[in-house]
Amino acid sequence: MIFQANLIEELLAVLGYWDRLFSGFLLTMWMYGWALLLGFILGLFLAILRVYGGTIFSGVATGYIEIMRGTPLVAQLFFIFFLPNTLNIPSEMWVIETSFSIFNKEISLKLLDYPIFVGILTLSLNSGAYQAEYLRGSIVSVGAGQLEAAQSLGMSRLSSIRHVVLPQALRRVIPAWSNEAAYLPKYTVLVYFIGGVEELFFQADFIQHKTFFPLTTYIIVSIMFLITITSISKLLEFIHKRTAIPGL
Amino acid sequence: MDEPLLRIVDVWKSYEDLQVLKGVSFELAERDVKVIFGPSGSGKSTLLRCINMLNPPDSGEIYLRGDNITAPNVDLNAIRTRIGMVFQHFNLFAHLKAIDNVSIGLRRVKGLEKQEARRKALEALNRVRLAEWADHYPAQLSGGQQQRVGIARALAMEPDVILFDEPTSALDPELIGEVLQAMLDIAKAGTTMVVVTHEMGFARAVASEMIFLDDGVVIERGTPEHFSVSPKSKRVKRFLNQLDVLYGSHEKLLKLSEEEEGK
Ligand SMILES: Nc1ncnc2c1ncn2[C@@H]1O[C@H](COP(=O)(O)OP(=O)(O)OP(=O)(O)O)[C@@H](O)[C@H]1O
Ligand SMILES: [Mg+2]
Fold this sequence. Notes:
The complex is a heterodimer of chains A (248) and B (263).
Chain A: H1 2-15, H2 18-52, H3 54-70, H4 73-86, E1 96-102, E2 105-112, H5 114-142, H6 144-152, H7 157-188, H8 200-211, H9 214-242
Antiparallel strand pairs in A: 1-2
Helix pairs in contact in A: 2-3, 2-5, 2-7, 2-8, 3-5, 4-5, 5-7, 6-7, 7-9, 8-9
Chain B: E1 6-15, E2 18-28, E3 33-37, H1 44-51, E4 59-64, E5 67-68, H2 76-80, E6 83-86, H3 98-108, H4 114-127, H5 143-156, E7 161-165, H6 173-188, E8 193-196, H7 200-206, E9 209-214, E10 217-222, H8 224-229, H9 234-247, H10 251-262
Parallel strand pairs in B: 3-8, 3-9, 6-7, 7-8
Antiparallel strand pairs in B: 1-2, 1-4, 4-5, 9-10
Helix pairs in contact in B: 3-4, 3-5, 4-5, 5-6, 9-10
């Protein structure tokens, strides 16, 4: 009974900072969204190079993918964070801020500054390598016969890839790609290490110091992740079903 | 007409150390139907893939209405719109309805408007008696229907010549007839065709010439009657015998050649 009373009290104390949890969550999702999107564009480009690029381009793409997948994301974050400084390049960044209020709370949200930029960039470069591998697998699985049939009609290689191979490859990639879409929010957490980014874990750290309820704080944060990631998986499952090719 | 529609001159092709084609030459006039046959691995598919430059030959020339398509700097995409291809395993675009399989070339290559492309695609589907299946996806069609869509897809581009690579060999026996019938119909309507097939009935009905290819070399060529009545080479006779054992549908051909041997 006592435990339960405490739990509710702790919950209420932590949730009292809901505005910080909310803005931290928004920033995490903001970085996640960009990283997933930019990583997808990069991954698609890398995958096409790997499959159709010939020895040199495919080799370059493979090398990039192996390096990004074979080194720790935290190391990549620090590397990119300190790179401009080492090279004596000024690293000031336009700051983009927005603010709005809900339930009479003013929430101000930094959308872009140097650390956030580093976070989005590094996550994109890293996620691109993983997404490239999923995309490569699905492109290869479409089979050379489809490309040949398109080329036999006089379609250029590029047009054949765009209109025949990719529409099939992108449908096929969804189940495997949802892994990356579901993992990436968790990797986004690592941006916390470069400091100064007020994402969800920065806010969680702030809240647990204020409330002295670390366990409850991190349980709530974890539940937020669980709900988010489950929703992303379910959404992709739905999209996969909706885009299925009839008869297959 | 002096210039043949298609002229293959001394085509050689190898994959690494494996010499597949060893100097193949033949010509094709307008409305000709050329049947190529021969044992597995003799280079029949390779020859067709050389003709539409999916696998350019190592040496030799190919002329399409007088244009040397093996010359460097030729726009291969433009050339391929003039050479249709029907594949052994159909290779239909799995994500597109039958009608869109047929119209994609018209839209993306010939730049036709959607309505015009659709009208022409329906026309082509109609020629293979599949107009009412236009809105089905490949996976919803039987093998025979899929191959007929493949034929319509090639037809719709109005190419100078259509190449067929064993179009019925992946089909269940009961589905072969409808595909051969469609091929027969378009051949009789004047389509120029190069057909790799072992369907001797089809060859007898429409082939203007048959070519027996073995080990990358043309061993013998002649009319269907020639191969029915008096094939010269032992290898051809043996091969035709084997065909009969395998397919059991060439009794007439076999009897005639046995008589010939008995003389
Ligand atoms: N892309 C390739 N790379 C290497 N070898 C190949 C390739 N394509 C074909 N070959 C080889 O070339 C030879 C001729 O093959 P091809 O497919 O032209 O024969 P085919 O007459 O069409 O035989 P089938 O009746 O089995 O279709 C075979 O020995 C085959 O293994
Ligand atoms: Mg073959």
